[in-house]
Amino acid sequence: MPQSVKRTRCPNGTRKDPKTKECVKVKNKQQSKKIKFKRVSKKSKKPSAKQIARAKKMRNELLELSKVYQEFKSEQITKKQLAKKINSSNLKLTKGKLKSIKVKKSNK
User: Fold this and answer.
1) What secondary structure, in 3-state letters, does 55-75 show?
2) Structural domain tally of the chain?
């Protein structure tokens, strides 16, 4: 059996130089590159008057645009609820209810 060769390691903080095959001290990257942090002044987190006005305007615009959708959605929900109740016996009655709902929505 071949004899095992004991591998030598360099101590912590050093590395093996491939040319000289000796342990050489390693320069610490943190020490070589000193980072200077700039102090940043704290800005107020409160929005300006223009930003508040713009946000309010956008909110109102979105509410106006969504009204049509909300009406459509409520109509769909009522139709769905009525559709669950429809039988052959009360078909004429539910058709009348649907027509009355459409008339009420168009009057608004």
Assistant:
1) HHHHHHHHHHHHHHHHHHHHH
2) 1
Q: Mind listing the pLDDT tens digit for each residue in 11-50?
A: 888 999 999 989 999 876 655 556 666 666 666 678 888 9
Do residues 31 and 42 make contact, with C-beta atoms less than 8 angstroms apart? Answer: no
Classified as helix, coil or strand, 42 is coil
Domain assignment present for 1: no
Confirm whether pTM is higher than 0.85.
no
Q: Which residues form the domain of 88?
A: 68-108
**95 vs 66: CA distance, rounded Å:** 28
Residue 105 forms part of a structural domain: yes
**Contact indicator for 101, 95 with CB cutoff of 8 Å:** no
Number of helical H runs and strand E runs in the chain: 3, 2
The residues with which 87 forms a beta bridge, in sequence order, are none
